[in-house]
Every structure is written in structure tokens, then in C-alpha cells.
Amino acid sequence: MKALIKTDPQIYKLIKDEEKRQKEVLEMIPSENYTSKAVMEALGSVLTNKYSEGYPRRRYYQGNNVIDQVESLAQDRAKKLFDVPYVNVQPLSGSPANAAVEFAILNPGDTLMGLKLAFGGHLTHGLPLNLSGRFFRAVQYELAGDGSLDFEAIEKMALKEKPKLIICGFTAYPRIIDFKKFGQIADKVGAYLMADIAHIAGLIVGGAHPSPVPFVHIVTTTTHKTLRGPRGAMIMVTEKGLRKDPDLPKKIDSAIIPGLQGGPHDNQTAAIAVSLYEAGLSSFKKYAQQVVKNAQILASELLKYEFSLVSGGTDNHLILIDLRNKKVNGALAAFALEVAGIVVNKNGVPFDTMPPFYPSGIRLGTPAITTRGMKEKDMKRIASWMNQAIEEVAGKEMPKEKEARSKYWKAIRKEVEKNKTLLQIAEEVKVFSQEFPIP
Ligand code: DSN
Which band of pLDDT confidence, cut at 50, 70 and 90, is reported for residue 313? Predict the structure, then answer.
């Protein structure tokens, strides 16, 4: 980074500070990961200088011979890896990818059906405040009382509401998704079925979660979560999708450009291609399996400390903890863990009565720490630290009333920041983390 130090020492320093932070803590937000150096080199390359609106061999700008090859390579690698006949690698991230699919197949006012955000769905799956809930008629399903997918209720809603699009694939669901059952329901009502596999794409490629491809029409994914690529996204159409609607690829291509985006980020496309190459290696299969093994050991250790896990455990990379039995709010728990060097996110839990900024749970996962090489025995240590940290704030309940809550929040943060036990754990985490280099 010689040029950066010279030109902009302020930004250089901030990047170095963030690098240090990422090294010294346990990154356990389940949607985060560490990309390889090769991915970063592609991302920081001269490809960022180019405009290439359009698609390979159909561009609006000259000088795209090389970019055409980069984009075609990314497409070919994705098709092979996911076993799909069509892919668009241009969506700038996950939300634009989902918006593009909705824009491609729905007219304003058409019905889409997705899992409610508070139950583990995504903003783009029909939240009223999101474009998906504002321009379309969004109907939202919930989970069963035990935190699992309630297929009977989903089918009943689909038969009643007759959605044109059903969305499955979630952001806070710790169990295997039965894509076949979703496929049967969508076929019964003649809906398009889209699987948003952003969280589990790497697990699917690595054989650690069943693929939706035989059962759905469209698949969207980000590339930066378990897939371990740069920030970015892809939209894929399956053989089943082509049978339902042979024009789907054309509709999706034109929803991206001119519908929603201009020029693709070619440096991002190249970095996606690199990560797809890496995800095809046998070492990636081992990685994906280890992510799940680690999450399962971590879950069983947390259960020993009487943490209440939504659905009782995990089949994938993430764990959702309902903290109500520990009498501590998710926001405070996540803050205390951060002071202790363990980075997770506060999260709503099914049937949560608290608002999204002060939800009753936390969400954590193993993709990033597994990339650093952590294994089963390390999960036991992490669970013990987590338990120690939460003990420090257990019983410190957040007032229900808004004003009292924000006053309390300010005061408690000051207290927690100086908590000696938490700071001691952070020191131990720092020493422990040094054994596991980041790529
Ligand atoms: N922000 C992503 C996540 O953390 O799951 C979803 O968009």
C-alpha cells in the first residue's frame, strides 16, 4: 500500500486499524467472512477503470474485449459450480439482485410471498418498508412455534393468496431448508419460486446443504458470505425455470440493465470469478463441512450453558440465541460480547415483542472463524468465553418504555465498556486469535 500511505495517510491508517481489529477479534457475524488475497488482488485491479454497460459481445462501449472474457469466465464457472444453464453476475449486491428478479417477473401490485423479516426473512422478501413490500402486494409467512418452517401454513397461504412469486431461503434460519416442499407448493399454485441462498451458497457448493436447483426456477445469492468471495451477487435460472418461462434470462438481463443498474463493476466480476474458482477446489468442500461441524459443536456447548437456541440447535453455519431466559436484551448482549472481543449481531427471534433495534436475541456463526482454521476444540473455548461474557450482563433488563430505555442504554454502555471481566476475555481472545492468521 505504498501509494496509499503517501497519498492519503488518514485512510491508510483507518484500513490498518480495521485490519488489526479483524485480526484481534472473533468475527462471528454469520454473513461475514475473510476473502483470499487473490480475490482482493482482483478486486483492487485496473478493471475498476472500465465501463462495460451491456453483456459480453453486446456492449454499449468500445474496448471491452478483455472484460468480455472476464465476465464470460465468471458466468461459466458459476454455471458449472451450481449446475445451472444461465447466470447473471452483474448485480452489485444481494438486495439489487432480489429487486431485479422481482422487477423482471412482477408488475406493480402483483403478489409476492416471503418469510417475515422478524422470523428470519430478508428486507427484500416483502418488508412493507422495502421496495419489495411497497410496489408489490407482499404476503408474509411466519415460522411454527418451534422455530421451524410450517409447510402446512405456507401451503394454505399460497392457495389463498395465489402469489406470482414465492421466495424461500433466509437470513436467520439455522435449519436445512426443504426446497423440494417449497417446489411442490409453488407448482401447485403456478408461482415462480426463487431461492435466496445468500447465506448458504458456500455450504451448497461444498456439499454441506442440499441444493435448491432441481426444485426452484430462480436462485439469487450474494458472493461474500459462506461463498467467501468479494461483496457482490448473482442471479441464476435453473432448467426448471427455463421450462416454466424460456424468456426468464432475457427478462432478468434487462431488469439489471437498463432496469436497475448501469455499468457493472468489472473488478468485482473478476474477483467473483476468482472466488468461484476457489470454491470449486476440494479444500473448499472441507471448509464447508468444517463450518457446519463447528457450528454444531458450538451449539451443543452453548446448550450446556443453558442458552436457549431457536429451533434447538443448527444444521448450518448459524445459531440464533433467544436471550429471554438470561434476562438480557440482544443489543446489550452483543455489545458486551464486542467488548470481550467476540463480534456477533443482535437479532430478532420468532414472536419477538421487542423492536428491531433492541431485539431479544443474537445471531452468530462460524464461516469466518473456520476460514481462520478454528476447529471443534476451539468452539468449546469460545462457548465458555461467551457464557462468561453474558453472565456479566445477565439480569440487566432493558426498560420497556422508549425514553427510559434510551437513557438506560447510554448508562449501561458506559458501565459495560469498563467491565474488567469482559476486558480480560478480550485480552485472552487476542492472544488466542494470533494462532489463526487471517488470509
Ligand atoms: N445483511 C445480511 C445478513 O447479515 O444476513 C443480509 O442482507
Answer: very high
User: Whose alpha carbon is nearest atom 2 of ligand 1?
Assistant: 31
Instruction: Indicate whether 400 pLDDT > 90.
Output: no
**Under CATH, what is the fold of the domain 42-279?**
Aspartate Aminotransferase; domain 2 (3.40.640)
Atom of ligand 1 nearest to the CA of 123: 7
Ligand 1 pocket mutation, candidates 27, 29, 31, 221, criterion most atoms within 8 A of CB: 31
DSSP string of 138-150? EEEE-B-TTSSB-
**In 3-state terms, what secondary structure has residue 375?**
coil
Q: Whose CA is nearest to atom 3 of ligand 1?
A: 31
CATH number for the region 282-433 comes to 3.90.1150.10
**Alpha carbon of 171 to ligand 1 centroid (Å):** 6
| CA atoms of 255 and 22, how far apart (whole Å) | 37
The 3-class SS string of 216-268 reads: CCEEEEECCCCCCCCCCEEEEECHHHHHHCCCHHHHHHHHHHHHHCCCCCHHH
Domain ranges of the chain: 42-279, 282-433
Contacts of 316 (CB under 8 A, 6+ apart): 173, 174, 175, 176, 199, 200, 203, 208, 209, 292, 295
Q: How many angstroms separate the alpha carbon of residue 199 from the centre of ligand 1? A: 8
Question: Is the pLDDT assigned to residue 412 strictly greater than 90?
Answer: yes
Assess whether the C-beta atom of 169 lies below 6 angstroms from ligand 1: no
pLDDT, tens digit, for every residue of 126-143?
Answer: 999 999 999 999 999 999
- DSSP states of 28-88 as a string? --TT-----HHHHHHHTSGGGG----EETTEESSS--HHHHHHHHHHHHHHHHHHT-SEEE
> Any idea which residues carry the catalytic annotation?
51, 53, 196, 222, 225, 231
> What is the arithmetic mean of pLDDT over 283-308?
98
Segment 421-431 shows an average pLDDT of 98
Residue 122 CB–ligand 1 contact under 6 Å: yes
In this prediction, residue 246 carries a pLDDT of: 98
Ligand 1 centroid – CA 217 distance (Å): 23
Which atom number of ligand 1 is nearest to the Cα of residue 172?
5
Q: Centre a 10 Å sphere on the Cβ of residue 168 and count the other Cβ atoms it contains.
A: 29
Q: Are 230 and 32 in contact (CB under 8 A)?
A: no
Instruction: Say if ligand 1 is within 6 A of residue 183 CB.
Output: no
